[in-house]
Amino acid sequence: MTITAFYEGIGLCKRAKAAALALDGVYNEETCAPAFALFDDAKTWEKALSDLRELCGEDADGMKMFVCLSHCAAQRAQRYHSLGIPEEIYWTTMRFLSRFLHADSEKAGHLVFRWAWWFPRQLALKEFRIGAMEYEMLTAEGECRISVHIPADADFSDEAVGASLADARAFMKKFFPAFAEAPMYCESWLLSPALRELLPEGSNILNFQRRFDILRVDENSPAALEWIFPDPKVNPEDFPEDTRLRRVAKRYLLSGGRIGWTFGKLRE
After folding, report:
1. What is the DSSP string of 136-184?
2. How many whole angstroms separate alpha carbon 137 and alpha carbon 184?
3. Where are the domains of the chain?
4. CATH T-level fold of 186-266
5. 34, 156, 190, 246: which has the fewest Cβ within 10 Å?
6. So what's the pLDDT on residue 18?
7. In the predicted model, is pLDDT for residue 61 greater than 90?
8. How many CA atoms lie within 13 A of 210 on its CB side?
């Protein structure tokens, strides 16, 4: 697969595609190959990223790293094919790159990529986008578990979430049987009990919450603000109110409320 075909496949916008192609000289197959191989093992992900940063040199906006990771992702298509994983899942999974590049660039006002630290999961075939949700396979103390992640562009309707969960189970059973019955967990502001006070009955977020047993709540975590508001560092009184969620969340926060961060286990 050519890198141009990869950029087209992940839906990279015209401006970002042109910038990435202009930087393509940073990629050298021979020098990058050892770092790419390190993505196979979670224990060496940090080493892989460190080696690529050294190869990239000055890279304030992260675009050189974006180019290198894109080349690695394009090469990993063969692994999907050899396992029989549908091409659609490959592309929806790899669109993580374009999704965060576009989102971060919109906030910054210029092209920027800040999510290289997360992408080894996709390169190692440990995380997949299946329908609405993303599923990360983890092993801790001999136990297999699946972490459910919620993409910002997900169809969050009850039907789409239900279909994604069912399809993920079928996917794991077929391609990664050790995880076929693994418990699923989710850690997100979207599970926050505080949202029950802010959202109407029947909202997609509350329907999603009902699928989980809440195990832990960190009311002091400010992480939710980064997902709700475009610039969480501004004075809360200046938070925008252009969506219903932002309006009610702003009022709640200004009145002393906390949304926090919540960890839950899927009911099955």
Report:
1. EEEEETTEEEEEEE--TT---SHHHHHHHHHHHHHHHHHH-GGGTT--E
2. 9
3. 1-120, 186-266
4. Aminopeptidase (3.40.630)
5. 34
6. 98
7. yes
8. 11
